[in-house]
Specification:
alpha/beta; Quinone Oxidoreductase, Chain A, domain 1; Rossmann fold; 2 domains; six-stranded parallel β-sheet; 11 helices; 15 strands; about 30% helix; about 25% strand; Zn-ADH-like_protein
Length: about 325
């Protein structure tokens, strides 16, 4: 098999695409021939040694992928050879095959393409858990989505619209704002050229957004939180801008607002039943065309560095997918 191997996490340039031994199949695991894998922001951080998880070296990055089961280990129930699956496995996705615990795999309906499936679990599960569970979003409320043209942003936009919310999509260019508008955003803000607080005040008649979906952090977080509505919920998803903001907590007091942490991965581990029901609901939404992953482009797996470069340059709308040619 072939894989992108990280022996020294100093950046993308240190990754090597090479032949490696196939991983052994353990009890409770399935072997998957990978058809597609998608890039998530943690994939970049982990090869730069900036992610909270520090895997032992060497490792194969790639958190999210789809493919076909080629072998089933002892005790791995519910799966059969030839079955189509998707998984958020944490590691191993940027390769031609991987062994993962069967519990991490999601069976795929035939109508679910491998490319869509590889870009589905992380972004849609994170966004659904954030908006519907942690944010208690209600129909008719206004949602501000920061970084709305990215992977989690486009998923959040679709889920919020499916829930009956009004969506204000904020992104860093006119082209990205136009893409968000095409996805159904009710209004957009280009925070590279427009003042976020002024635009929010105008778009909400001074009320502010009920829910703020924030995967960006940095200097946008305080500006957004200062604009939040009474009883608003600011959802902390991540820090794609690079810096972790220090918010004045008196703002929460004055607005009766909540600062809400969102950690879908931990939720999935601690509450697997609720997570499984959520994924089943999302798969149903996909089947009825209420949601669909936005794919920036699909590249051959061997072109991973080019995909990383596009992500680092913040050029991606939706998600980049890497594909393996089917044998």
């Amino acid at each position: 098999m072939k894989a992108w191997v990280c022996e020294n996490p100093v950046g993308v340039e240190a990754l090597q695409w090479r032949d490696v031994p196939a991983p052994p199949l353990g009890a409770g695991q399935i072997r998957v021939a990978i058809r597609a894998a998608s890039l998530n922001f943690p994939d970049l951080l982990i090869v730069q040694n900036k992610y909270q998880m520090k895997p032992p070296l060497p490792f194969v990055p790639g958190t999210e992928f789809s493919g076909v089961v080629t072998e089933v280990g002892d005790g791995a129930t519910g799966f059969a050879v030839g079955q189509r699956v998707a998984a958020f496995g944490g590691l191993g996705g940027f390769a031609t095959e991987v062994c993962i615990p069967a519990a991490l795999a999601m069976p795929l309906p035939d109508a679910f393409s491998f490319e869509d499936a590889a870009a589905f679990i992380c972004t849609y599960a994170t966004s659904h858990h954030a908006l519907m569970d942690r944010g208690a979003l209600q129909a008719g409320e206004t949602v501000l989505i920061l970084g709305a043209a990215g992977g989690v942003g486009t998923a959040a936009l679709q889920i919020a619209k499916a829930a009956g919310a009004r969506v204000i999509a904020a992104a860093g260019s006119d082209a990205k704002c136009a893409a968000c508008k095409a996805l159904g955003a009710d209004a957009t803000i280009n925070y590279a050229t427009q003042n976020l607080r002024d635009e929010l005040k105008a778009l909400t008649d001074g009320k502010g957004p009920d829910v703020i979906y924030d995967p960006v952090g940095g200097d946008l977080a305080e500006a957004a939180f200062r604009s939040i509505a009474w009883r608003g919920r600011h959802l902390v998803i991540g820090f794609a801008q690079g810096s972790i903001p220090a918010l004045p907590l008196n703002l929460a007091l004055l607005k009766g607002a909540s600062l809400v942490g969102v950690f879908w991965g931990e939720f999935a581990k601690r509450e697997p039943g609720r997570n499984a029901r959520m994924l089943a609901e999302l798969a149903g939404w996909y089947a009825t065309s209420r949601i669909k992953p936005v794919l920036d482009r699909a590249l051959p797996m061997a072109e991973l560095p080019a995909a990383f470069a596009r992500m680092a340059a913040r050029e991606v709308v939706g998600k980049v997918v890497l594909t393996n040619r089917e044998a």
